[in-house]
Amino acid sequence: MPEHHVFHYQQEFQLESGAVLPGFQLTYTTYGTLNQQRSNVVWVCHALTGSSDFTDWWCDLFGEGKLYDPREWFVVSANTLGGCYGSTGPLSVNPRTLQPYFHTFPQLTNHDIVRAFDLLREELGLKQVHTLLGGSLGGQQALEWVLQKPAVFERLVHVASNARHSPWGIAFNESQRMAIRQDPTWASSTPEAGREGLKTARSIAMLSYRHYNTYNEAQQEPGHSITDNFRASSYQVYQGEKLAQRFNAYTYWLLSKAMDSHNVGRGRGGLERALAHVKARCLFVGVDTDLLFPVEEQYFLHAQVSGSAFHLIRSNYGHDGFLVEVDQLENAIQQFYKSEILTEEELNYEKQER
């Protein structure tokens, strides 16, 4: 069974903005056992509203008899800094004031979040990671991480994500934050601040996560007589209510801002120059109906990263296809691993011929 742990970092942690956190904690999940060579590590970076429990939201990839069988792999995932599943975030108590951070929690970037992850990696003594796997916001963080620590990561599986967040994606996120700002409670400093606005934000987000075909198939009304109380309407309300029960507006605001600021070219001379320095062997995966992270973004990465592989998932679920079409994702990763073995066999054959 997956095991849940807490990592405590008790020194000051300076952020890209110049702000300083007086220490932090990360909750993290491990599954499986390290082999003697410590060569079987898989690290997973979760999406915007995910948690460190990858067996919850990518359950078909992890488990006995599955792609990442705990008898063969040691899998690690940490809840992001700023999160609300046990890691230090806006609802945590600031040790300097002995009050919850709430609105005073400093803005984060993926650069900051990845540095926090890497402190955990060092604490665990993991010098090499066989595969770094991330989707959406997690994919952004994974790409940033392989650039920060090129000697650590042997392979990157980057799913439905990008090298720099687009104006389109930023506009979607700002529309969601506008909904939170319109909630009168957002001005208060309470755990429930912005809760009603968060529901609307989630409803807006669903339009970017899914696709016309998704709604047409699942929310279409039977017959022709209905004039109100549509399935699609109740579905939007349901999605907002469901997220509000497990998340908070502060973290949603904070992490959507981190997504907006994602740009691996910042401080590295631009995207092309930065991506030319990727050392990990990469698989870039896109979803053909993804509106939020369209396939053009993954094609760009594939074109810029020498020796990388690309796979297109076909789905009617839009961006959420990276979570739904697990069979296709599993097949893509398996082929990625197999092609590496074939390449090694070809090289060995050429050496023998010489």
TrEMBL record:
Transferase found in the keyword field: yes
Active site: 136, 290, 319
EC number: 2.3.1.31
Keywords: Acyltransferase, Amino-acid biosynthesis, Cytoplasm, Methionine biosynthesis, Transferase
Pfam entry (one): Abhydrolase_1
UniProt cross-references to InterPro entries, sorted A to Z: AB_hydrolase_1, AB_hydrolase_fold, HAT_MetX-like
PANTHER family: HOMOSERINE O-ACETYLTRANSFERASE (PTHR32268)
Name under which the protein is recorded: Homoserine O-acetyltransferase
